[in-house]
Amino acid sequence: MGTSLDLERIKERKALRGFTNLFRKEKQAWWGTRRWWINALLWSGMLGGLVLVMLYILPPLAAATGDPNVAKAGGQAAFGLLMARQVFFELGTLAVAIGVIVLFQDMIVSERQSGLTEWLLAKPVARRSYILSKLCASLLVILAVLITLPALFTYIFLSVRAGSFFAPGTFLGGLGIMVVNSVFYLTMTLMLGTLFTSRPPLLGIALGAALGGNLLASFIEPLLYVTPWMLPKVASLISGGQPVPDGMLWPPLIASVLWSSLFILIALMKFERTEF
User: Fold this and answer.
1) Where are the domains of the chain?
2) Tens digits of residue pLDDT in 150-171
């Protein structure tokens, strides 16, 4: 293992005993290795590349084929801006959710299988600190590497193409929705890691929820209002300053926050009762 597990004695509250050292360990696993910049290049290149394709390659192709949406949008530049924004916030939100599941599927499962979890808990460490340190460190990675960097490049590309600064308020609003969606899948993955000791059921449930949610909701429409499955579309609408239909914003947004809180609570309760 490339990560140092040396723990330092630090004074802290008994309820969160060991959090500081465990949080430092989790951060070191990302920021002390090449994982962060590899993923930064990957996600910025992937999402930024899609945005550039939508801005500069798709519009002339669509115009050449007589696509009526080009004229409806107000020309090639406006059409490219529309498609780039929709791709980043709709496809990008889903892509980040999948990335969260894949990147963090091992944050508990692999350590349980290797015996590292048992070794760490033999130290003066509160079990809730083990869970919360992983949650906080993972959230920092998601915000910085998977969302902020690609969003920064996307904002620059959109502003250059528009010839002026793209509306920052609406853009940040769309990013906020993307963050909520990502936290939902992060906390779900964390919870599943405490419930299962192998990857297949964890990936099956989490990826099934991310990829099959809209398909399931097409048969049971009320699910759209109690899940995050509408959030990518909502993020796209908000980022463009477009009106969000009644009932499409707050119900899924509040439900996602509540689900995330429930997932954390279940993870903490399950981990407290798990024998190693």
Assistant:
1) 22-273
2) 999 999 999 999 999 999 999 9
